[in-house]
């Protein structure tokens, strides 16, 4: 069973942007705790004595911390893991989350060295903003926390840790990050353009099917009306595209075909790969043109020809429309690399012993 974690570097803007994904934060909190020893036989609990399970410089992690922090996550493991796999799953999970908790201890120690702190007001502001951003009430929050095996105080402690780590990342890492215009352009060329070779036809497609409402027992007039409805829908959307509206956006919203999920993007077809109705629609087009609506065996379709020239480069999205998205992606990548390197460094300099 893999374990989702939320390392500090994901908070690459202000810590309050964490509020975009409330459920992710909850699952990350559960994964951040150590697996408890609850898989032991029930009679063993009375005999458990708290002990140290790891030493990190001058700090320790105890068995009681293991039990408390891992409570919710362990409950999930019990519910989802087959009995024959339970012991091995817990062993791997315990090791992974123990490493995560060690990282947290090291970061807490580094924050103390640098004098980085988090006030109660900051924590409460983050919690309040979380409710607003996710449009939930405190009661709903408490219910979700209870379902995850948490309480509100533990949730606030999680926010404190995330804010503290975000501040420390700001202090130690962000000043080293540089995103140049050339880096953005290189990323754009690699991820947002396609090179067409071999004389293929790069096509976008929209389709409107008929017969979904009609059956073999439906009257001929009803079938005809259903077919004409599909044709009218195709003609209406085709007119919107011809008048300048974005093909991909409309395809995602209105097309009945599987290609709708990709904005109608069919990729590259050679002429001998096309159905006859497709050839009729696109072979006479020049790049950028929209075909007429044509009838197919299952409905009505139209196409946009993006390229029909050997060696042409196709732009999937304009540079201006994705520039900031690219900048953020590159920033996140650098932040992760810098954070991982920084944690590796402080681990090498620390005394860490698992018991």
Please provide a written account of the structure.
The protein has helices at 22-32, 63-69, 71-80, 83-114, 120-133, 138-147, 152-172, 181-191, 220-242, 247-254, 276-282, 319-349, and strands spanning 52-56, 59-62, 193-195, 201-209, 265-269, 294-296, 299-307, 313-315, 352-354. The protein is α+β, with helices and mostly antiparallel strands and 355 residues long. It has 2 domains: 8-177 and 332-354, Orthogonal Bundle (Triger factor/SurA peptide-binding fold), CATH 1.10.4030.10; 193-315, Chitinase A, domain 3, CATH 3.10.50.40. It has a 4-stranded antiparallel β-sheet with strand order 5-4-7-6, sandwiched between helices. A 3-stranded antiparallel β-sheet has the order 2-1-9. The protein has a two-stranded antiparallel ribbon with strand order 3-8. A hairpin with a 2-residue loop joins β1 and β2. α8 (181-191) packs across α12. The longest helix has 32 residues, at 83-114. Mean pLDDT is 79; it is low at 1-48.
What's the β-strand tally? 9
CATH topology of the largest domain: Triger factor/SurA peptide-binding fold
Largest sheet: 4 strands, antiparallel
**In which range does the helix fraction lie?**
40-55%
- What is the CATH top level name of the largest domain? Mainly Alpha
Shape, please?
elongated
H/E element string?
HEEHHHHHHHEEHHEHEEEHE
The overall pLDDT, averaged over residues, is 79
Poorly predicted regions: 1-48
Structural class: alpha+beta
From the alpha-carbon coordinates, what is the Rg to the nearest angstrom? 28 Å
Strand order of the largest sheet: 5-4-7-6
* Beta strand %: 5-15%
What would CATH call the homologous superfamily of the largest domain?
Porin chaperone SurA, peptide-binding domain
How many structural domains?
2
Number of DSSP helices? 12
Architecture (CATH level 2) name of the largest domain = Orthogonal Bundle
Intertermini distance: 24 Å
């Amino acid at each position: 069973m893999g374990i989702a974690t939320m390392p500090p570097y994901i908070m690459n803007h202000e810590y309050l942007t964490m509020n975009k994904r409330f459920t992710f934060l909850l699952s990350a909190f559960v994964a951040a705790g150590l697996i408890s020893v609850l898989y032991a036989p029930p009679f063993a609990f009375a005999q458990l004595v708290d002990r140290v399970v790891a030493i990190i410089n001058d700090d320790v992690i105890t068995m009681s911390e293991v039990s408390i922090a891992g409570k919710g996550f362990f409950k999930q493991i019990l519910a989802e893991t087959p009995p024959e796999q339970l012991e091995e799953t817990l062993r791997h999970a315990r090791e992974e989350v123990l490493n995560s908790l060690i990282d947290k201890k090291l970061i807490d120690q580094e924050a103390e060295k640098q004098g980085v702190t988090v006030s109660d007001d900051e924590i409460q502001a983050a919690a309040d903003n979380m409710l607003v951003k996710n449009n939930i009430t405190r009661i709903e929050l408490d219910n979700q926390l209870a379902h995850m095996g948490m309480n509100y105080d533990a949730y606030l402690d999680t926010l404190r840790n995330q804010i503290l780590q975000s501040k420390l990342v700001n202090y130690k890492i962000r000043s080293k990050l540089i995103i140049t215009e050339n880096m953005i352009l290189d990323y754009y060329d690699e991820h947002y353009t396609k090179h067409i070779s071999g004389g293929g036809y790069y096509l976008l497609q929209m389709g409107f099917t008929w017969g979904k409402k009609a059956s073999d027992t439906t009257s001929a007039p009803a079938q005809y009306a259903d077919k004409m409805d599909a044709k009218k829908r195709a003609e209406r959307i085709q007119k919107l595209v011809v008048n300048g509206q974005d093909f991909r956006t409309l395809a995602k919203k209105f097309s009945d075909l599987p290609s709708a999920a990709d904005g109608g993007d069919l990729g590259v077809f050679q002429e001998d790969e096309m159905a006859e109705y497709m050839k009729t629609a696109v072979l006479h087009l020049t790049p950028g043109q929209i075909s007429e609506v044509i009838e197919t065996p299952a409905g009505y379709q139209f196409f946009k020809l993006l390229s029909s020239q050997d060696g042409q480069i196709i732009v999937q999205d304009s540079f201006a429309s994705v520039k900031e998205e690219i900048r953020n992606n590159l920033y996140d990548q650098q932040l992760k690399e810098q954070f991982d390197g920084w944690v590796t460094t402080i681990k090498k300099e620390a005394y860490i012993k698992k018991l």
